[in-house]
Amino acid sequence: MLDSVKTTPDDTSKAQTGLHSEESPLFSSLEFSNRFHSLGEDFFSLQEPDGLHKPELVHINHSAAQLLDHDSRQLDTEHFCQFVAGQHIPKNCRPVAAIYAGHQFGGFVPQLGDGRALLMAEVKNSRSEYWEIQLKGAGMTPYSRRGDGRAVLRSTIREYLCSEAMHGLGIPTTRALAMVNSEEEVYREQLETGASMVRMAPSFIRFGSFELFASRNQPDKVQQLADFVIENYYPEISLQNNDVKDNPYQQFLSAVVEKTALMVAHWQSAGFAHGVMNTDNMSILGLTLDYGPFGFLDTYKRDFICNHSDHQGRYSFKNQPSIALWNLTRFAETLLTLMTIDEAKATLAEFEPVFTRHYLSLMEQKLGFFNADVSNEEHQKRSTLILSLLNLMEKNQVDYTLLFRQLATAAGYQENTPIRDMFMDREAFDTWHKHYLKLLEQDESLSPEQRCKKMNRVNPKYILRNYMAQIAIEQATRYRDYSEVDKLMNILLNPYDEHPEMEHYAGLPPDWATQISVSCSS
Ligand code: AMP
Ligand code: MG
Fold this sequence. Notes:
Structural class: alpha+beta
Distance between the termini: 40 Å
Strand content: 5-15%
Order of helices and strands: HEEEHHEEEEEHEEHHHEEHHHHHHHHH
Bound molecules: adenosine monophosphate, magnesium ion
Number of domains: 3
Oligomer: single chain
Number of strands: 12
């Protein structure tokens, strides 16, 4: 058994640094579990944050705070700001930086790690859920390589907004709890200010965590990590089962394949491109992780490349499913001391059908087909319809989010829907629309009104387009005005609702949006 390890609150070496406070009202009500520590110091380095100079709170996310049983409106904000800035460590926290490796743009990097993030604690909430609390941007670690351990405000705002936008869309993701700006000077292409944010996830373990130990030829460590992840995050898999036909590690691989396929199916159906699908950015729990130069589709374009540093388009929108499988294959290779090659191959072969099933199910719903209990032939007709719509959208450069949000009106059995004006080739659209209405008619389980309502719960009105983040970033960096971050958080956490005061963000992006370029610089 891997028991939870309680950290030692009376650790004198930490108390001397002055970062630890005796009384910590912030987390005093929480139960600290810190299970990651039980793996031992081959898996991490103890590292205290290097606090940011003169921090100020940019945002506290009430939605995420609730996961820690906090009403953040009653938080002692000064204390909390110090925590987010890395200036104060609650009494029972023993921060660590995790070590990992990874394939970056196809090439193996033997050692990486949390270069600017620290796992501050793991807490258990009143619903017995475990949440790891990570601080990003609070200083150097043994894994910083040539980096400075900092994150700039611009990239912090982007990660913060996007992780909550994804959550709002129902896509598995790490969460964002709070963010500070500071007067710390950080150099990128120009002088910027340092910022930090608190992220939360059940675990931040990555494919790369396994790759590190496999590449060092340490199969016992691979097994220890696998056992830890299975025991704590995949409890439905029994490690005690001695039946050779039921290899628990194969089941583990299968579960990771399933979760990754589901995550990427969500990305493809929402029009989200991650931008840096390196194996060190792939969560073992199938959570969208490490937001850098991500982008949502404006017009539907399969070849969309959101990362301007990705010259080959390795991580283009259309490549995401095959890259996910490539990454899973690298992960499976780390488990080859725990299963046969045939077992690994058979499990990896599950990816494509699982991905396709999830993707088509999500797309069927976007088109208003909520009855999944139909014949294969019917599903096939729907798939053909989906594909022909996507082809038409690409040819006619139609905005992905806008089209699907307005599709509910076209599903309302109207011959002349306003959507047809979104297509240059209106006749082609009319032909498609006729087929669409015909297929919808066969599904009598919903009235047009009911269908329209349900469609508006799966087709968002608001997504985080680059220009929206850019407006919030400009206001924050130029004037230290963070109000736009707050406004965007409200719509992105509820992207299916109407927000009349924010209607200007529900339309096409402005012309200047095409000038925005995002790269790995963060
Ligand atoms: P990313 O592609 O942003 O996930 O980063 C890849 C690796 O570089 C990770 O191990 C990061 O921790 C590290 N890294 C990125 N930026 C910095 C920085 N400014 N300082 C230290 N490490 C960094
Ligand atoms: Mg990363």
